Amino acid sequence: MDNALASTSFAVASERPESTTARPLVNAKSTPMNGKILSIEALTVSFDGFKAVDGLDMSIDENELRVVIGPNGAGKTTLLDMICGKTKPTSGSIRFRGTELGKLSDYQIVRLGVGRKFQTPSIYEDLTVAENLEISIPQVHGVWASIFFRRSKEVRERIGYVAEEIMLKDHLRMKSGKLSHGQKQWLEIGLLLMQDSDLMLLDEPVAGMSPREREETAELLKRIANGKSLVVIEHDMDFVRSIAKKVTVLHQGRLLSEGSVEEVQNDPRVIEVYLGH
Amino acid sequence: MTFRRGNQAPRRKAVIPAAISIEETFVTFGIFVMQLFNGLSLFTILLLMALGLAIVFGLMGVINMAHGEIMAMGAYTTYLTASFIEHHLPGLMGVYLFIAILLAFAVTFAFGYVLERGFIRWFYHRPLDTLLATWGLSLILQQTYRSVFGAQEVSVPLTTWLSGAWEPTETIQLPLNRIFIVALTILVTLGVWYILHKTRWGLRARAVTQNRAMSSAVGIDTNRVDALIFALGSGLAGIAGSVFTMVGSTNPGTGQLYIVDSFIVVVFGGVASLLGTAASSFLIAQMQTALEYLMSGSMAKVAILLLVITVLYFRPNGLFASKVRA
Amino acid sequence: MNISAKQGERFAHAGLALLLLGLLPLALGPYWLNLVGKYLAFSFVAVGIVLAWGYCGILSLGQGVFFGFGGYAMAMFLKLEASAPELPDFMVWSSVEKLPFWWEPYSSLTVTIASIFLVPIPVAFIFAYAIFRKRVSGVYFAIVTIALSMTLVVLNIGQQGETGGANGITDFSTLLGFDIINDAGKVAIYWVEVVLLLTATTLAALLLHSRFGKLLIAVRDREDRVRFSGFDTAMIKAFIFTVSAVLSSVGGAMFALQAGLVTPSLIGAVTSVELVIYAAVGGRLSVVGAVIGALLVGFMKSYLSEHFPEIWLFFLGGMFIFVVWVLPNGLADLFRKILRVKA
Question: Are residues A147 and C214, on separate chains, in Cβ contact within 8 Å?
């Protein structure tokens, strides 16, 4: 049991009632996706006629770490908003392991295994680090289950494991509002780890971090990516270079370029967008 | 010709005749027009109240439960002006209304300005606390009115040139004072629209409410703009109070009667949309008077509330809100 | 003195039990005990408001609706007993000839008590879940609830013959033949009420210490984040709103027994908002504080509105402003600071 907990699978030893009921449903509907965890087709959203994302096609492989870059207003955050159900697409399709996400509500999408980290750290400042992590345990989403929830040995071990992973082991009993900005960012990543999301959407995870914290975050993300898929929005090209194998460049809601860091940096269209004008 | 004070239509039982003669058609048509017109005077008060709220709540996100008491302040100002002119300058009685409206606006505008600077601004970003604190303020104002003016109703003399009715047909009588307040309301609404959308100040106000930090960075005194927006909203409530004295009499609880209705109007229309506010006051006022004609006043209120909740259930951002980025 | 938050809370609960079970019954005669009982009826609502507003950020200005429901349910039973085998007097005056069908269940005490606890559950839950699912919250929710309570008052007053109209339901004095007006009756009801109340405060404290209690805080502070952790936050909010509705209903029933009458004003917006200030004065984050707040404000209300009626509204209005401005977490916070309870 200890081995299972310590491995990167993040499986909890206790029952998984939510998952066991939800997953078969997914499998029943799913179509083979050739190792793709997410595939997006002709995705469009418009706000009062303004197309924030316009006919976008892209896909993410299982266990891939993808970085999305692009100038302001390129539609990066809106893209993540649509994947996780915060914004409903006007048209097009988003499929997660074969399940169409467009019609589901946000919390249902999360239960399928899609986690989202917001741009500004979004944690529960009035609760301790341990309580923050405890709330995010995925198996218990019901009201009654939460009331009669017991902090079992497995739960404590799992909280300890994730806390170590996000470098907050020594702060478990601290009110999370008192953490530094960088630590808050880590804690939010920790919430997603507790959630056991298979696809993690991270919006500028190193914003406001010191260079040292950035390095540690890069290491953290690389560790996570071993066994999960990540989509990371980032501006800092040094950071992008340190984590990314494949980069997607968005511009005005459309796909501009895709490839390795070197490829996109040498792509004349990308240079035009960033340096042109 | 009959003239009736108070904003209630003479209540008649709805009768559906088996066969309708031509005269009856005219009578029915007359009732219909009168009904529409009765709805209009409720509409004007709701609109003036709601305009102020739409500005304060819609633009600033401040919920002011004392808005109704500010309206009552306008009404009492009108009453005081009327009494003063009646006793000291009887020659001006013909135009006292114009003086009173200006005074009501000035008094409530000033009150709103002081209120924002000394009170409301401490509660920004705590909307529920603002609600409670302003509720407390409304209780204090109510008790103040009760102590100063007494618990009984006060009313103002009707200006002679506004008493009487315009009778386009035999069955239709449109009281002149109501025609006057409808015209006044339209004028005020257009004025607000002009101020917010066509003047430099309006541009600043909208800039501040959309992006405070940026507005401050380009040199707009955001504190002053906040205070002025709030003052303008209060001033509009003052005008609403002034208008109210022409169709009803004022007591310390008058404001409370309209505050929740006005909030419903604003929410129903979609906050931050002047056109929405206008359309929604019109709809709600017309429904209210029409339903009151058909059923009891209490059932009419229940019916409208259910209707509004149903509509909001399907359009949570209000009837006239546009889709915005989440 | 340095004590931990947990110890502090235990002291508070123990102190409350001591006060209600020991000090007050020993020190006060039946008249005063009855008055305390009346304020305690409001404290049920205040505890519900602490749960829903203090911990979950849901400000309902319509708690009077459920308070009124419980009160009317109890009063209907008592009234039927008082007037049996005739119709209640106000129905006779309004020439209602047959008992309205929705009165009939209330001739049984069992059904009455069951309905006080059970009827608010589906009503509050369905209403709240529908609204919260549409992401209507904050001040919008407050406005919807205040409008509802105002509307129900109008409706209630309008149906004079079936509800007693503006006069409400009065003139009853026995419960199953047992006199509730005399001293022994008043004291007995006080004990029943205190036991119910202490049960409620204990359960509320346990709820707040469970994982669900942490979830409430999480929903209050970061509802988005909770949804993106896979929770149906509308369900969480509707649940706690329902709990507070049941508490209000029980409080209303106790009020009817203590006061010997119910009136439409209990349902109204003014009562509903006043109830919020009871909780706010005691401390929106303290279950015990809410009870103490209800006792204090209730006492001030009786005293001031009797002796200085014109001052009462100034006082109440001032208290709204003072609590929000100076003491947002109420008296409980003041005590925490004095006793140096660690956060």
Answer: no
Quick one: pLDDT at residue C2?
64
Q: How far is B173 from chain C (nearest CA, A)?
A: 31
**Closest chain B C-alpha to C30 CA, distance in angstroms:** 33
Query: Under a CB-based contact definition with an 8 Å cutoff, are residues C332 and C285 in contact?
Result: yes
pLDDT of A200 reads 92
What is the 3-state composition of chain A as percent helix, strand, coil, each rounded to the nearest 5?
40, 25, 35
Residue type at position B37? F
The Cα–Cα gap between A191 and B249 comes to 60
Report d(CA C130, CA A19) in Å as an integer.
Answer: 26
The pLDDT value recorded for residue B74 is: 95
Chain mean pLDDT for chain A: 82
> Most A CBs within 10 Å: which of C228, C232, C285, as the mutation test of the A interface?
C228
At residue B11, the pLDDT reads 41
Q: How far apart, in whole angstroms, are the C-alpha atoms of residue C96 and residue C160?
A: 10
Q: Which subunits sit against A, judged by 3+ Cβ pairs under 8 A?
A: B, C
Q: Which residue has the tokens 């003669």?
A: B21
For CA atoms B85, B89, B95, B100, the dihedral sign is negative
The 3-class SS string of chain B reads CCCCCCCCCCCCCCCCCCCCCHHHHHHHHHHHHHHHHHHHHHHHHHHHHHHHHHHHHHHHCCCCCCHHHHHHHHHHHHHHHHHHHHHHCHHHHHHHHHHHHHHHHHHHHHHHHHHHHHCHHHHCCCHHHHHHHHHHHHHHHHHHHHHHHCCCCECCCCCHHHCCEECCCCCCCEEHHHHHHHHHHHHHHHHHHHHHHHCHHHHHHHHHHHCHHHHHHCCCCHHHHHHHHHHHHHHHHHHHHHHHHHHCCECCCHHHHHHHHHHHHHHHHCCCCHHHHHHHHHHHHHHHHHHHHHCCHHHHHHHHHHHHHHHHHHCCCCCCCCCCCC
Q: Note the pLDDT tens digit of each residue in A178-191.
A: 999 889 999 999 99
Q: In this predicted structure, what is the pLDDT of residue A264?
A: 86
Residues of B in contact with C320 (CB under 8 A): 132-133, 135-137, 139
Residues in B touching C316 (Cβ below 8 Å): 136, 139
Dihedral sign of CA atoms B231, B237, B239, B242 in order: negative
Q: Taking 70 as the threshold, does the pLDDT of residue B323 lie above it? A: no
The CATH number given to whatever domain includes residue C315 is 1.10.3470
Residue range C301-335, pLDDT digits in tens = 888 888 888 888 899 999 989 998 888 888 888 88
Q: Return the domain boundaries, chain B.
A: 44-158+175-253
Q: What is the mean pLDDT of residues C34-62?
A: 93
Q: What is the mean pLDDT of residues A219-247?
A: 87
Report whether pLDDT(B14) > 60: no
**Contact list, B322 vs chain A (CB under 8 Å):** 48
- What is the per-residue pLDDT for A102? 83
Pairs across B and C, CB distance < 8 A: 99
pLDDT per residue as tens digits for the range C281-294: 998 999 999 999 99
- What is the predicted pLDDT for the residue at C246? 97
Residue of A nearest to C227 (CA): A107
Radius of gyration of chain A (CA): 19
* Chain C: residue whose CA lies nearest to A188: C225
Region A55-65: mean pLDDT is 89
Q: Average pLDDT of chain B?
A: 81
Residue ranges making up the domain that contains C252:
3-342
Q: Whose structure tokens read 């904003």? A: B7
**What gap in Å lies between CA A53 and CA A77, rounded to an integer?**
10
**Could you give the number of structural domains in chain C?**
1
Q: Give percent of chain C with pLDDT exceeding 90.
A: 45
Rounded-to-integer distance, Cα C89 and Cα C96, Å: 10
